[in-house]
Amino acid sequence: MPQRDTFVPDRFSFDEGEHTFAGYHDPRERGNGFATPAFPLTEARRIARVSADLRRQDGVDAAERIRYDARTDSFLIDNPENHPGEKPEREHGFDIETTQGKRHVYGIGRMGWTWMEKSWWADAEPGHERRRSLLGRTADRAARRRGAR
After folding, report:
1. Would you say residue 107 lies in a domain?
2. Within 10 Å of residue 70's Cβ, how many Cβ atoms?
3. Range of the domain at 41
4. DSSP secondary structure letter of residue 115
5. Using one digit for the tens of pLDDT, what is the confidence trace for 108-120?
6. Which of helix, strand or coil describes residue 86?
7. How far apart are CA 11 and CA 77, in angstroms?
8. Looking at the domain assignment, is residue 3 inside a domain?
């Protein structure tokens, strides 16, 4: 866990920028090279809604099932179709100090998902392979949804 005063705000995406979520992270801490964000409750609930939408649109393999348990102040995350018999991962809320003061957050997919911070994809040069990959995959996905492919 990073030092409590090192969290900074940014926007994060797990699907190449198609959906972005406001959260906090320590830019020095990476999980397999990816950002390790934590999100306030409102954004964590948005992540759960987007994940549910992806499951409906693209099939159950497309995203995890995420639900909030107010009794334990945690999110339960699982994909029983891909991981039958496994217990859901539980992400408890925790407090952090940020450049904006104290915040209560949830580390949904913090160390296991491929989160990218906006500053990462926004800083890429227009012809850079990283940007082309991100934008190309998003465009391909949008085209498939429209039936253009």
Report:
1. yes
2. 7
3. 8-144
4. B
5. 988 888 888 887 6
6. coil
7. 21
8. no
Residues 6+ apart with CB under 8 A from 127: none
Q: Please, are residues 12 and 25 in contact by the beta-carbon 8 Å criterion? A: yes
CA distance 118 to 131: 12
Domain count, the chain: 1
- DSSP bridge pairs for 42: none
Burial level of 45, CB count in 10 A (0-12/13-18/19+)?
Answer: middle
Q: How many residues does the chain have?
A: 149
| Token duo for residue 57 | 């649109």
Q: pTM for the complete prediction? A: 0.74
11-23 per-position pLDDT tens digit: 999 866 678 999 9
Q: State both tokens at 146.
A: 């429209």
Cβ atoms of residues 91 and 72 within 8 Å: no
Q: Distance between terminal CA atoms of the chain?
A: 44
Distance CA 11, CA 25 (A): 10
**Residue 1 lies inside a defined structural domain of this protein:** no
Is 105 within the bounds of a domain? yes
Pairing of strands 30-31, 34-35: antiparallel
Distance (Å, whole) CA 10 – CA 68: 23
